Amino acid sequence: QQQVKQSPQSLIVQKGGISIINCAYENTAFDYFPWYQQFPGKGPALLIAIRPDVSEKKEGRFTISFNKSAKQFSLHIMDSQPGDSATYFCAASIIQGAQKLVFGQGTRLTINP
Amino acid sequence: GAVVSQHPSWVICKSGTSVKIECRSLDFQATTMFWYRQFPKQSLMLMATSNEGSKATYEQGVEKDKFLINHASLTLSTLTVTSAHPEDSSFYICSAPLRLVLEETQYFGPGTRLLVL
User: Fold this and answer.
1) Which residues of B touch A98 (CB under 8 A)?
2) Burial class (CB in 10 A: 0-12, 13-18, 19+), A64
3) What does the pLDDT average to over B19-31?
4) Which of B116, B18, B24 is nearest to B68 (CA)?
């Protein structure tokens, strides 16, 4: 019940295209859903996060779509650029709890020029 | 945003020795910090929660005598890998949560790559 399932495992998108990564969770107590971007040899960096009281959040080219009833959320990267090539992790946690993040398995995104 | 640092960024040691990794929150205080382990091409695996002023809590399957955690102050947590062996070689990452009024963000350190020969 603590798992967060992420797909696809890897994704190749042409420059300028839309990259879409999906995540699903089971624990309905989760109330914080961040996305992290990680480059090789670096720590994860927060990209964007959403709370379950909204269905969508947009920051620049990055958008999170959240479907509470389906217990799913996704990351959309518009106008994907080669610099976006990285591994993306979705995560979930309970803010009022121990604040522990449960991570998805990760998606290796490659943007072809 | 807030900054979390780790030291060293990489370390090579001989089997049987102990290695200490430091995690610091540079511009905010953190009563809780988290330690993760990441193998190549895999996700982050939470090892333990470091609590300032009290004992760390370890995830199931993580040996507390093997991975000693000390949260010495509100800005510093250390992870000591005792009697390191080649299978302990991994990328170790810490994080610290920063809770503001309406949101919380967990900031990660740059990671420490450990290679045990």
Assistant:
1) 32, 49
2) buried
3) 94
4) B18
